[in-house]
Design brief:
By secondary structure, the chain is α/β, with parallel strands linked by helices. The protein has two domains: about 1-30; about 35-310, 3-Layer(aba) Sandwich (Rossmann fold), CATH 3.40.50. Helix content is about 45%, strand content about 15%. Helix 4 packs across helix 5 (about 140-150) and helix 7 (about 180-200) runs antiparallel to helix 8. Mean pLDDT is about 90; it is low at about 10-25.
Length: about 300
């Protein structure tokens, strides 16, 4: 009798857990990126070989090309406080959503450096942007910027890395590598906490409250969890030291910008970048955490504009 009762309780527990999991799944990523939603979102989209890409291009046609690459957990809105300032300073500025983020499509592919490299190459070619290029990248986007700069040494004149996350030890936790477990954790652990975790990475989150809503908007569209997990599996483990050293031996000008109170990638990490790239100019921004470009545009924008204008 007790076995039947315990068995019934266990079965009921499993049903409740399964029901709760299904409820979580079906209340997350409830919208599709399609022609209608793209029309509602507004902005500019372009169809590339792996899907539609959301982008913005501004500044005079004759201006030097500056390309902004955002990080893993954000979209091109991470440059909201910098994009117009650069364009108004006379640069031809491109910002775009990486595949799997923002309002760009989420193709069923491995989210690795090859995918992101080809996305940027194709975008540059389609928009007919002319070298030399200045690449400004933030957080995990720095891996993409570094990879692009290393492969295009003759075309990338300036590389600006902001709070870069490109020096992993190459190790992945077992729960990120295990298919079912990792997908489960993305739904029940990462997704509900994703935005607040980003907010805690700022020095003073109360100064950037609008960032919360901007982040939630991209989380509504199907495929972001899959894209994030794939990026963690293929990009986050990379250590870009050899690429940094090749850039360090080139004529590429480098600017390193760091938030003084970055809790995700502490400023002391900059020593590794500066050792690999002796030509790097280092700027540390006070009262800023991770994504210091967004939190302190009053310090970030002048530093970047001066660096780009004072080319040797």
């Amino acid at each position: 009798m007790w076995k039947k009762i315990l068995g019934g309780l266990a079965l009921t527990g499993l049903v409740l857990v399964a029901g709760a999991f299904l409820y979580v799944i079906f209340t997350q990523e409830t919208e599709e990126l399609n022609e209608k939603t793209r029309s509602d979102i507004g902005g500019t989209f372009i169809q590339l070989s792996n899907g539609y890409v959301h982008y913005e291009l501004a500044g005079p046609d004759t201006g030097a090309t500056v390309i902004l690459v955002h990080g893993a957990g954000s979209g091109s809105y991470a440059w909201d406080n910098n994009f117009k300032a650069l364009a108004k300073s006379g640069f031809r500025v491109l910002r775009y959503d990486l595949y799997g983020r923002g309002f760009s499509d989420r193709p069923q592919l491995a989210y690795d450096t090859t995918l992101f490299y080809n996305q940027l190459l194709e975008l540059i070619d389609t928009l007919q942007l002319k070298p030399p290029y200045s690449i400004a990248a933030v957080s995990m986007g720095s891996t993409i910027g570094i990879h692009f700069a290393k492969n295009k040494l003759g075309e990338v004149k300036n590389l600006i890395l902001t709070d870069p996350a490109s020096l992993s030890d190459g190790k992945l936790p077992w729960f990120i590598k295990t298919p079912v477990v990792s997908s489960l954790l993305m739904s029940v652990y990462w997704y509900p906490r994703a935005v607040e975790k980003q907010m805690r990475e700022y020095y003073n989150p109360s100064n950037v409250p609008e960032y919360r809503e901007k982040s939630w908007k991209q989380l509504r569209y199907k495929g972001l969890k899959r894209a994030m997990l794939s990026s963690w599996q293929h990009v986050l483990p990379l250590n870009m030291t050899s690429d940094l050293q090749k850039i360090g031996q080139s004529d590429t000008r480098v600017l390193l910008v760091w938030g003084k109170y970055d809790p995700l990638v502490p400023p002391m990490t900059s020593q590794h970048y500066r050792l690999a790239m002796p030509q790097a100019v280092y700027v540390e921004i006070d009262s800023a955490g991770h994504l210091s470009n967004y939190e302190r545009p009053d310090k970030f924008n002048p530093a970047v504009i001066n660096f780009l204008r004072n080319e040797e």
